[in-house]
Amino acid sequence: MAAITSAGIGSGLDVASIVSQLVAAERGPADQRISIATTRANTSISALANFRSALANLQTASKALLPGSNGAASSLGKLTATPAKPDYFSASAENKAVAGNYSVEVVSLAAANKRASDLYASSSAVVGDGDVTLAVGGKSFTVNLTSPANTLADLRDKINAASDNSGVGAAIVSDGSGARLLLTSRATGTANAVSVTSSIFNTTESQPAADAVVKVDGFTTTSSSNAVTTAVDGLTLNLVKAEPGTSTTLTVGLDQKASEAAVATFVNAYNNVVKFIATQTKFDPVAKTAGILLGDSTVLSATQQLRNVIGGSADTAGVYKTLSAIGITTSADGTLISDTTKFNKATSTDFAAVQRLFAGTDGLATKMSALTTTLLADDGQLQAKTDGLNSRLKDLGKQQTAVDVRIQAYEARTRAQFTALDTLMSKLSSTSSYLTQQLAKLS
Description:
By secondary structure, the protein is of the alpha+beta class. It has seven helices and 19 strands. The strands form six sheets. Strands 1-15-3-11-12 form a five-stranded antiparallel β-sheet, with no helix packed on it. The chain has a four-stranded antiparallel β-sheet with strand order 7-8-4-10, covered by helices on one side. A three-stranded antiparallel β-sheet has the order 2-14-13, with no helix packed on it. Strand 7 and strand 8 (178-185) form a beta hairpin. The two termini are 24 Å apart.
């Protein structure tokens, strides 16, 4: 009698269901363990990335309170420069400028040199064949006219398109009598006067080059530009209108709002870090859930270092050695609270001491900038922690692959065993039926 080989047909066993359940039971614990570990690793990586982002904002806010490496002004201690009569000039001040009042007289403005060509009938009039050499500021370049591209318009276009054009703009101006080519230096000042050398083209000066002349507290300064930076160290005067003999008061003083905003940004950035840490490391006793970074030694270490800086002192600052001395105190939850009135009083009383509190050699912003730079470094603790978690994810991926391979083998082995059992039971069932029939015949 032929054997029944289709699983479950001869024996009545649901082999497919049995194998499926056994495989699920075998796979379940391993899959669950790997899934939980993978989710936790990914969540931790995401939390650390957000922590790094908050620290980066704190780093930026800290650096904004420090002078730039190139001597650029910081956000703390910005100065305003306000002229009594802005019609004559505007002004801006760097941190190295000295607060006070200055008497400014705009004697004359800088002007760009202009030269006009001889009169031509129109822009399409032929200039001739040959070279035209132009020079400005000690540099020269040459354009060549050759028929048929030798008109006044061609000369204009070639001058403007020359790759080595050293600073001359060309334009055609027309009136009722004809057209002229107007050459204008792109920079003001006598050092940038235009000269033209050519056997086919003539020009005359229509506007002489001129340097700006300005007097500050009676001392005269000249400048090739109307943006005068040499009159007072740290001040830029942008001249608008000249009126010899008329003096205007320029007041240079502390930009109180800019300083308030810079410190407020620093405080807010620190508070955001503190709030993030509190959220990610808290334990909810009701829900019995823990923040993903609870107990993380790297975060705990960083947290303590941040607190040490904020709660520390700047011994070289002078009268204001701590944040609390200028109205910035720590609340019960670790965040900072600012008293604007007290801060403004401190800056009005001794602003230099406030600057040193933040930006001195042992200033709090100096220390915080250094700390955040260390924490965010490619070889820092946070990056090492993240690298470790990424390695953990790779290892879990390998474990999952190994589980898949093992389960596939287990499923094949189990299915073969139950198929064999099904076949055997089918044979035994057939034999039993045959014997039953034979015995029935004997009776």
